[in-house]
Design a protein that fits this description.
CATH topology of the largest domain: Rossmann fold
Structural class: alpha/beta
Helix content: 40-55%
Number of strands: 15
Distance between the termini: 66 Å
Number of domains: 3
Strand order of the largest sheet: 1-6-5-2-3-4
Number of helices: 18
Length: 415
């Protein structure tokens, strides 16, 4: 059956490519039409920042609020102590309470760029932490009141768990409990805040369905689940990863310039799709830009980079990143906004190989040497051929520019 949504939110999700599946299109649509409703997405605190792979969920919450509803960002202060086993090959390393709190503090910085927590509006966003109800659970009471509603046979059939077992990889009892705790989150959010919808990536489908079933059994309330596709780029790479690691959203972990560059380097085939998912530009304009060919597609990529960077870091940061990129690539300059390594005289002399590693253009000395050997490294736009070159204070009398390939650059200066 083809369902034609009436709510602005579901129509937006379908039109812009956010929607992978929904437990009940018509029921959710009717619930959202009836007035402002709360929905949540959970984020475990496994690092000090989220990365681009989480941006599709953040944009879903943003659109949810823009269409008149209340987004809830649920921090996994409790569930992070267990670790989500979904589609993982091994068990996550366990984090202590102090590290989890530090990670949550870092993650919170991102959300306020996308979601309004401060207005007096009915749909003002909420930021909650599931440690509030998970930390003090009584184990025996929890087993009796909640655990009895779960079928181990059914839990084993979920693809996220089944794929791990099929590969004969260990799944600890600790991890197996994760899906019960996440289901309990949905129950508590519905009981405490009237939350009617959980959203997440399609790898969370089993966990979401568990929460819906549990809430129906315990509270007899009708609630819903909606998932987004797990994105890969057109060349098969996992979204959120780049040549030099995860594309973090916090500015102190990835500079606005480097973030801008990630989007500027989007593959031609992904431009239209990414404009619809990661910007608020009209859909027809996204499709027009995505259909451009040849050199014209590069201006569409700059538009994508500007729009996405402005949402996260502000319009000024986006403009500065574009200006720096144009100076570096079109004029051969060094730019004002490149990642910068500042050395002291006690660091000198230093080998060019060490300098490439310290500047973040290579992960190891071996990688840096290979870069030089393959003519991929440049010093002030001149090819580097000598891996034994030493840099002293005289060479740093003015800042120097290191380059790895055509698109990655860093400044080195003497402080």
């Amino acid at each position: 059956m083809t369902y034609h949504p009436k709510s602005d939110f579901i129509a937006t999700m379908i039109e812009r490519g956010f929607l992978a599946d929904c437990t009940d299109y018509q029921g959710l649509d009717e619930a959202l039409i009836s007035g402002c409703k709360p929905a949540y997405i959970g984020f475990d605190a496994t690092a000090k920042s989220l990365h681009v792979g989480s941006l599709i969920q953040i944009m879903m919450l943003r659109w949810f609020q823009k269409t008149g509803h209340q987004p809830i960002t649920l921090m996994g202060g409790g569930t992070t102590k267990v670790g989500d086993p979904s589609f993982r090959a091994d068990e996550r390393p366990l984090l202590g309470p102090e590290q989890i709190d530090e990670n949550i503090a870092g993650i919170k910085k991102v959300f306020s760029a996308y979601i309004d927590y401060d207005s007096g509006a009915e749909n003002k966003a909420l930021m909650l932490n599931n440690a509030e109800w998970l930390d003090d659970l009584n184990y025996l009471d929890f087993l009796r009141d909640i655990g009895r509603h779960f079928s181990v046979n059914r839990m084993l059939s979920f693809e996220s768990v089944k794929s791990r077992l099929d590969r004969e990889q260990s799944l600890s009892f600790l991890e197996f409990n994760y899906m019960i705790l996440q289901a309990y989150d949905f129950l508590e959010l519905n009981r405490r805040y009237g939350c009617v919808l959980q959203m997440g990536g399609s790898d969370q489908w089993g966990n979401i369905v568990n929460g819906i079933d549990l809430t129906r059994r315990v509270l007899d309330h009708e609630i819903y689940g909606l998932t987004s596709p797990l994105l890969t780029t057109s060349d098969g790479k996992k979204m959120g990863k780049s040549q030099d690691g995860a594309v973090w959203l916090n500015a102190e972990m990835r500079s606005p310039y480097e973030f801008w560059q990630f989007w500027r380097n989007t593959t031609d085939a992904d431009v239209g799709r990414f404009l619809k998912l990661y910007t608020e530009m009209p859909v027809d304009e996204c499709e027009r830009l995505g259909a451009l060919q040849g050199s014209e597609i590069n201006e569409a990529k700059i538009r994508l980079a500007n729009e996405v960077t402005a949402l996260l870091h502000g319009s000024e940061a986006a403009a500065n990143a574009e200006a720096t990129a144009r100076e570096v690539f079109e004029k051969g300059g060094v730019g004002d906004d490149l990642p910068t390594l500042t050395l002291s005289e006690t660091d000198l002399p230093i080998s060019i190989v060490q300098l490439i590693v310290k500047s973040g253009l290579a992960k190891s000395g071996k990688e840096a040497k290979r870069l030089i050997a393959e003519n991929g490294a440049k010093l002030d736009d001149a090819s580097l051929t000598d891996a034994g070159l030493m840099i002293d204070a005289g060479a740093l009398s003015s800042p120097i520019k290191l380059s790895a390939g055509k698109k990655r650059h860093a400044l080195v200066q003497l402080g």
